[in-house]
Design goal:
The complex is a heterodimer of chains A (308) and B (551). Chain A has 308 residues and is an alpha+beta fold. Chain A folds into three domains: 64 residues, Helix Hairpins (Orthogonal Bundle), CATH 1.10.287; 115 residues, Sandwich (Immunoglobulin-like); 95 residues, Orthogonal Bundle (Cytochrome Bc1 Complex, Chain D, domain 2). Helices cover 35% and strands 21% of the residues of chain A. In chain A, helix 1 runs antiparallel to helix 2 and helix 4 crosses helix 6. The radius of gyration of chain A is 32 Å and the shape is rod-shaped. Chain B has 551 residues and is mainly α. A two-stranded antiparallel ribbon of chain B has the order 1-2. Chain B is globular. Classes of the chains: A alpha+beta (308), B mainly alpha (551). The interface between A and B is large, with 82 and 90 residues.
Chain lengths: 308, 551
C-alpha cells in the first residue's frame, strides 16, 4: 500500500516503520476477529444455557493494559527517531526556494535560475527547500520521498531530502493542503538528475524562458539583470544609450569611428563592453561574461530589435 | 441478597394502559411544544435521519464525481472542480455538525437516558426542547447556505482560504455556531440529570455503561464546544472586518486558527465515538446474556478518553507548522488514547466468552463495530507515529481512517442502538430478516468503499482532489461502487424500520431480555415513563436470576 519508489533513504526508514506497524496491526486485528468469531460460534445461543457471572479479572486486565503500554511506548520512540531525521536538515545542502501560489509552484536556485512546476535536483546531494506561499495554505508533498510539509503564508518553512540512486528520473510532487479550485492540478515534476544532466539543466537556466516570446523574455532580462539601470527603452537619456530605435542604425563611437548596431556588436558590448564606447558616454558598463545564458542573450537581442 | 428488580411496573401488575407517550396527546402542536424527553428524542431522530440522508447524498455525489478520471457519467461531463469542492465540504459539514455530533446524544440518549436512570424526564425539560429548536435553527441556516450556493472550504474552514473565498462561509459558520449551543444544552442537561435524577438505590457504579459513556460525552460537549463558538466568531469577524488574527497578510497567523479549531474538533471526535462505545456496552451483554466484563474498567476508560481528548489536538498538525517539541509531546500523548480504547475492545470480547450469544440485528451491528472500529483504531497508530504520519497525513489514508472510526464506529453503533431501542421507542418490532440483511450490506458496502481508500492513500493520493492520476482509477471506481452498496443498504434499513410502524407486530416490554431499567416499562412507555418509582437493588447486567428470553 505504499509508493513503489523509495526515492530517499528516509523513505526506506519510513517504509520499515510502516510495514512493522502494518504487520503488528494485522496480528492484533486477526486476533480480535478470530476471538470474536470463535466465541460467536462456540457460545452461540442455546436455550437454557446459563452464563457465568464474570465481572472482572484483575490479572487479565493488568496484562492487557501493560503490554499495549510497552508496545506503544516503543512505537512512540521509534516514530520520534524517524521524524527527527526528517525535521532537522543537514548543514551542508543545496538550497532551493519554493513558492506556492494558486495554483502553481515556482522554484528558484541560488544563481537566480527559476522554473515553474519543474524542479531538478542532483542525485546523492542533500537538498533543502525553503518554502513560502503567496496566498493560502499549500503543502509540498513528494510521495516517492515520503516528505510533506504545509506552507503557511507569512512564514518560511523548510523541508529536506537526499535523493538516492534509485530515484534518478521523474517524480511527482503534489499540493497536499486544500487550496481551492485548482488544488488537484497543482503538481510539479521533480527530476532527480545525474550530475551531468543537472549541470545541463543549470546551464539552460530552467524552463521559465519557454513561457515567453523572445521579446518578452528579453524585456524581463532587461529588468532582472540590471540593464534598465542605464539603458532606457523609451528614448529618454540615462547613463547609457537608450535602446529605443537603436537597432540597425550606425552609432558614432568616442574614437570617431562608426559601427552598425547588429547581433555581433550587441553581443560584443555585453561581453567586452570596453571595446567600443559610444560617443558622449563614460566607459562604465561591467562585463556580463558568464552571467547571461544563451536564451537570455537571444531574448535581449529580440527585445532591442523590437524597440522601433 | 436478593438479586431482583423491584419495579412494581411490570406489565402484569397493572392493567395494560391504553395511553402512552405517543398517543396521550395528539396533533402537531402537542409535539412542537412538548417537553417530554421521549418526544424530543423522536424529533431529534427524525431530524438527524434527514441530515444523514442529506449528508449521504453529498457523499454519493462526491463518489460519483470521482467514478472515473474524466468525471463523466454515461459519456457526459457533468461536474467540475468547483462543484466537487462544494460536495465534499457540504458532506463534511452536514455529517459532522448536523448528524454525528447530535445523533446518539440527541435522539437515542435523549430517549433512553432518563429511562435507564429510572427518572421521569431530564433535569431541564424546557432546555431540552430549546436544544432541539437550536438544532432546527442551525439546520435552517446551513440549508439556506447550501441553497445559496454552498461553501467550498472543507469542513475545517482553514484560513486564509476561508477568509478569502467568495462562497458563503459566514452563514455556514453561523449554522455551526448555533448547533454548538444545541450540543452544549444537551450535554448540560445530561450531566445534571445523571447527578440528580438517578433512581433510589442507583449509585454511580450501578448505572448502565451507556450512561457513563454519555456522561463522558457531555463533559466534552460543555467544555470544548465554547472554544468552537469563540473560534467561529473570530473567523466571522476576520472574514467580514479583517481584524488580523488569522490572516497573515494583515498580521494574523493561520496556524493559530488550526490550534483553536482542533482544540474543539479533536475532543469532538470523542463526542462522536464515546456514545457509540456506550451503545456497544449495552448491546453486547444483552445479546450475550452475560454480565459485562470489566464494568469499572469500561466506565473509567470513558472518562479517561474524555480527559485525554483535550490533550491531543496537536496531532492534527504534525506537518502544519507546529514546533518539533510540540509534535513529540502530542505524539506521546496520542499514544495514551490507544490504551483505554484497547481496554474497551478487550472487555467486549471477554463478555462474549462463555456467553449465550444470539445474532439479532443489533448484535450484527455490534460485531460490525468491533471489526470496523478495530481497523479504525489500529490505523490511528500510524498517525500517532511521527515518522509515518508525515507520509500518510492529508491523503486518502486519513480519509479512510476517520471513516472507519466515525462511520464504522459511531454511525454503525447508532444504527445498532436504533434497532436495539426501536421496539421501546415505537412499540413495534421490525422485520428481523430485512434488518439483518441491511446490517450485512452496510458492512460489505462500507469496506468496499473505504479499504480501497487505504490503498490509494498509502500510494500518495492526496485528499480533496478532483483530478487524479490514472493509476488511481480502479481504486476510485471500487470506492464509488461501495458507496452504491451502502445506499442500497440504508434504503433497505429505512424501509424496514418505517414499514414496521405500519406492519410490525406489537413489541413486548422487553424483547431482548435486557437488564437495564428502560426494559422494565411498557413499549412504548407512558408519558411519565414508569407507573411507580423504580428502585434498583442490584448492579446492572446481572443475569444470575433472570429468565432468559429469546425472540
Amino acid at each position: 500500500m505504499l509508493p513503489v519508489n523509495q526515492g530517499s533513504d528516509f523513505a526506506g526508514e519510513v517504509d520499515f516503520v510502516y510495514m512493522s506497524l502494518f504487520w503488528l496491526s494485522v496480528v492484533l486485528f486477526v486476533g480480535i476477529v478470530a476471538a470474536a468469531a470463535y466465541f460467536s460460534w462456540r457460545y452461540r445461543y442455546k436455550p437454557g444455557r446459563v452464563t457465568p457471572h464474570q465481572t472482572h479479572n484483575t490479572t487479565l486486565e493488568i496484562i492487557w493494559t501493560v503490554i499495549p503500554t510497552v508496545i506503544v511506548t516503543a512505537i512512540f520512540f521509534w516514530g520520534v527517531n524517524g521524524y527527527m531525521k526528517f525535521a532537522v536538515p543537514p548543514g551542508e545542502a543545496l538550497e532551493v526556494q519554493v513558492v506556492g501560489k494558486q495554483w502553481l509552484w515556482t522554484f528558484e536556485y541560488p544563481d537566480g535560475t527559476r522554473s515553474v512546476n519543474e524542479i531538478h535536483v542532483p542525485v546523492n546531494k542533500n537538498i533543502r527547500l525553503v518554502m513560502s506561499s503567496e496566498d493560502v495554505l499549500h503543502d509540498f508533498y513528494v510521495p516517492d520521498m515520503r516528505i510533506k510539509r504545509d506552507i503557511v503564508p507569512g512564514r518560511y518553512v523548510q523541508i529536506w531530502f537526499h535523493a538516492n540512486a534509485n530515484a534518478i528520473g521523474e517524480h511527482i510532487s503534489t499540493c497536499a493542503e486544500y487550496c481551492g479550485k485548482g488544488h488537484s492540478d497543482m503538481h510539479a515534476k521533480l527530476f532527480v538528475d545525474t550530475p551531468a544532466d543537472y549541470d545541463k539543466w543549470m546551464a539552460t537556466g530552467g524552463t521559465e524562458y519557454l513561457d515567453y516570446s523572445p521579446e518578452a523574455w528579453g524585456k524581463i532580462q532587461w529588468d532582472r539583470k540590471g540593464c534598465s539601470t542605464c539603458h532606457s527603452i523609451d528614448g529618454s537619456a540615462s547613463k547609457g544609450p537608450t535602446w529605443k530605435g537603436i537597432w540597425g542604425t550606425m552609432v558614432k563611437l568616442n574614437d570617431g569611428k562608426s559601427v552598425l548596431v547588429d547581433e555581433a556588436y550587441v553581443r560584443e558590448s555585453m561581453m567586452l563592453p570596453q571595446a567600443k564606447i559610444v560617443a558622449g558616454f563614460d566607459p562604465i558598463m561591467p562585463t556580463f561574461q558568464g552571467l547571461l545564458r544563451e536564451n537570455e542573450i537571444n531574448g535581449l537581442m529580440a527585445f532591442i530589435k523590437s524597440l522601433k | 441478597m436478593e438479586h431482583t428488580l423491584t419495579h412494581g411496573t411490570a406489565t402484569g401488575e397493572h392493567p395494560k394502559p391504553e395511553k402512552n407517550y405517543l398517543n396521550e396527546t395528539t396533533g402537531i402542536w402537542s409535539w412542537m411544544t412538548t417537553v417530554d424527553h421521549k418526544r424530543i428524542g423522536i424529533m431529534y431522530l427524525v431530524a438527524v435521519s434527514v441530515a444523514f440522508a442529506l449528508g449521504g447524498t453529498f457523499a454519493l455525489l462526491v463518489r460519483l464525481a470521482l467514478l472515473n478520471p474524466q468525471h463523466t457519467l454515461f459519456g457526459k461531463h457533468w461536474v467540475d472542480a468547483e462543484m466537487y469542492n462544494r460536495f465534499f465540504t457540504m458532506h463534511g459539514v452536514v455529517m459532522v455538525f448536523l448528524f454525528i455530533i447530535p445523533s446518539i446524544p440527541g435522539s437515542l440518549a435523549n430517549f433512553v437516558l432518563p429511562l435507564m436512570l429510572g427518572a421521569k424526564d431530564v433535569a431541564f425539560p424546557r432546555l431540552n426542547l430549546m436544544s432541539f429548536y437550536l438544532w432546527v435553527l442551525g439546520a435552517v441556516l446551513g440549508i439556506t447556505g447550501i441553497i445559496g450556493g454552498g461553501v467550498d472550504t472543507g469542513w475545517t474552514f482553514y484560513t486564509p482560504y476561508s477568509t478569502t473565498t467568495s462562497t458563503g462561509v459566514t452563514i455556514m459558520l453561523m449554522a455551526a455556531f448555533v448547533l454548538g449551543f444545541s450540543s452544549i444544552f444537551t450535554g448540560l442537561n445530561f450531566i445534571a440529570t445523571v447527578h440528580k435524577l438517578r433512581a433510589p438505590g442507583m449509585g454511580w457504579f450501578d448505572m448502565p455503561l451507556f450512561i457513563w459513556g454519555i456522561y463522558a460525552t457531555a463533559i466534552i460537549q460543555i467544555l470544548a464546544t465554547p472554544v468552537l463558538a469563540i473560534t467561529l466568531v473570530l473567523l466571522m469577524i476576520e472574514r467580514n472586518f479583517q481584524i488580523g488574527i488569522f490572516d497573515s497578510r494583515i498580521g494574523g497567523d493561520p496556524v493559530l486558527f488550526q490550534h483553536f479549531f482542533w482544540f474543539y474538533s479533536h475532543p469532538a471526535v470523542y463526542i462522536m465515538i464515546l456514545p457509540g462505545m456506550a451503545i456497544m456496552s449495552e448491546i453486547v451483554p444483552t445479546f450475550c446474556r452475560k454480565t459485562i466484563f470489566g464494568y469499572r474498567a469500561i466506565a473509567y476508560s470513558s472518562i479517561s478518553l474524555a480527559l485525554l481528548s483535550f490533550l491531543v489536538w496537536g496531532h492534527h498538525m504534525f506537518v502544519a507548522g507546529e514546533s518539533d517539541l510540540a509534535n513529540v509531546v502530542f505524539s506521546g500523548l496520542t499514544f495514551l488514547v490507544a490504551l483505554p480504547s484497547g481496554v474497551k475492545v478487550f472487555n467486549w470480547l471477554s463478555t462474549m466468552y462463555k456467553g449465550n450469544i444470539s445474532f439479532e440485528t443489533p448484535m450484527l451491528y455490534a460485531l460490525s463495530f468491533l471489526v470496523l472500529f478495530s481497523i479504525g483504531g489500529l490505523t490511528g497508530i500510524f498517525f500517532a507515529t511521527l515518522a509515518t504520519d508525515i507520509h500518510l497525513t492529508d491523503t486518502y489514508w486519513v480519509v479512510a481512517h476517520f471513516h472507519y472510526t466515525m462511520m464504522g464506529g459511531t454511525a454503525i453503533a447508532f444504527f445498532g442502538g436504533l434497532h436495539y431501542w426501536w421496539p421501546k421507542m415505537t412499540g413495534k418490532m421490525y422485520n428481523e430478516f430485512w434488518g439483518r440483511l441491511a446490517a450485512i450490506l452496510v458492512f460489505i458496502g462500507f469496506n468496499v468503499t473505504f479499504i480501497s481508500q487505504f490503498v490509494m492513500g498509502g500510494r500518495g493520493m492526496p485528499r480533496r482532489y478532483f483530478n487524479y492520476l490514472d493509476q488511481f482509477a480502479p481504486m476510485h471506481m471500487y470506492s464509488t461502487i461501495g458507496s452504491w452498496i451502502l445506499a442500497v443498504a440504508f434504503v433497505t434499513m429505512a424501509l424496514n424500520l418505517l414499514g414496521s410502524l405500519k406492519f410490525g407486530p406489537k413489541a413486548p416490554a422487553n424483547p431482548w431480555g435486557g437488564t437495564t431499567l428502560e426494559w422494565e416499562t411498557d413499549s412504548p412507555p407512558i408519558t411519565h415513563n414508569f407507573h411507580d418509582q423504580p428502585v434498583l437493588l442490584h448492579e446492572p447486567y446481572d443475569y444470575r436470576h433472570r429468565e432468559v428470553t429469546h425472540v
